[in-house]
Amino acid sequence: MFQVRMMFLVSMLAALVVAGVGPAAAQLQSRDQQACLSTVAKSAAKLSLTQAKAYATCLKAAAGADLGTCAKAQDCVDVDPSGKIAIAVGMLRDADTKACTVAPDFGHRPAPLVAMVAVQESLGLEDDLLGADLDAAAVLKASQARGAACQSKILGTAGKLLATLGATYDSCKKAGLAAGSIISTAGLDACLGRFDSDPSGKIAKARSALAAVATATCRDLDLGALFPGNCSGAADFAACAATRARCRACRRAVSSDNLASDCELLDDGLANNSCSGHAGRCNGRAELCDRTFDAVSYPTTHNSFSNAEENWTNPNQRYGITRQLSDGVRALMLDTYYYAGDLYLCHAFCNMGEGPGKTPRELLVSGLGKIRDFLDANPNAVVSIIFESYITESQTTQAFSDAGLAGMVHSQTQGQPWPTLDALIASGKRLVVFTDDSAASLPWHHYVWDFAWETNYSFYSAADFSCAINRGNAANSLFILNHFLTHTFGSSQLANQVNHDPLFINRALQCRSESGRLPNFVTVDHYDIGDVFSVVRKMNGLGECVP
Question: Contact, 297 vs 522, CB < 8 A?
């Protein structure tokens, strides 16, 4: 253990040097800043616990063959039929808004990202144990009562270990901030060392409880068959499950607090890809992993940068890019311009409507940085960008490099089969970039009309909707279904007219029938209004839980 610990510490210190964390970045946090960090951490812990309880409820329903309105147990996990996860997410966002009026100098990330990570890592531990397809893993209580009890008990005790690890880190953070001993990200990183020192002994107690369940409740049962996830072949199942909990607790802290620690080393001391985060889900669902990129439908936002949350003039969306991605949007339409000596995201005129409390633009590298942060925090996501570009390819390339995205872009040869989502995730090239710049020549900077075709994008009313081709070639494999209204500008009122079923799903089905092609990029204004996620699920052949 000493050698393992030293490896982790050396790696952590090296990462901190690279990240530029040092005396210049050190800053004692005020009471308000401390309250922000502690309040958000407390809300994230509650959200993680809510996700664990929701999953346990779905497992129990599957074991009892009583899924109610859900088509499948996995739909129960994904759709949140009780709405409790959505409530807990909202509470975290509200807590951040109220408690973080004075932004901390370190350890604070956007609330939508923190919420997504809390849900994702809790679900990740469950997937680590049972696999990403609950329907395939859950056993029926009627025929395998002990097996069902074993699954439930193991899941519960592993979840308690995850919560204990998280609470140990959060307690160290709160105490260190209050004492003034944590004045930089380095101090937060050091709190992960409490996983080993375990000053309260609570972690050891939680590990023992997990081991006791494995040897008592699950005695003489085939744990490899009952838990077909990452520990199915482990010689010591309880030890493997505990290692997965360490991984998930570390990943949550690193992503939520922007730490430099290497969870690959912290979980078991080995750089063996045991804490990669990819648990067999692709854009949230195991069924999508084996599908090629052009055989999947993606929720897409039109003029994604233009949003009310950040006080844009005449916004097309209510929330910004970070929340869009955290909410499940997987493709962004972005317009790029050169203005006043820099590169910006804006629409037509980068100073249009500028005034007190209003902004018509955002630096391109800033917007791309939000995408990078999301991809870093969500290793199971494949994201696309469709640029309307008024800058040069070299300028775009530099912005991607400055934002840290250059190593994440996928290169696709025209006419060649698209890779599967799983292959994109495994390669680390999880960002697919398109542009309307016909001069684009770099292999990752795809001229969109060589690969896609679209419907019209200028509809005045729902009666004007059609599935006729506007730009591109119908032989191209990607289909952009533009589903929004424009009266000079888009608006939430216009979105409310067309974003709801049955109109929305009927149009998507009609366009799929007429063209013989799956709508890949289902594009809307104000994605938070109506049924875009439901429509995309149906396009992807995924079930739902009917209210």
Answer: yes
d(CA 104, CA 21): 15
Global pTM reads: 0.92
- Asked, for residue 508, whether it belongs to a domain, the answer is yes
The per-residue pLDDT for range 260-277, each reduced to its tens digit, is: 999 988 888 888 878 876
Q: Is residue 94 domain-shared with residue 209, that is, in the same domain?
A: yes
Per residue in 77-101, pLDDT (tens digit) is 999 999 999 999 999 999 999 999 9
Give 140's contacts (C-beta < 8 A, 6+ positions apart).
63, 64, 65, 148
DSSP string, 472-488: E-TTSSEEEEE--B-BS
SS3 label, residue 55: helix
353 and 399 co-located in one domain: yes
Q: Looking at 448, 471, 487, which one is the last position of a domain?
A: 448
Let me know whether 318 and 424 are in one domain: yes
Return the residue matching tokens 């009313």: 461
Alpha helices in 20-83 (DSSP H): 31-63, 73-79
Q: Are 444 and 463 part of one and the same domain?
A: no
Rounded distance, CA 327 to CA 146, Å? 38
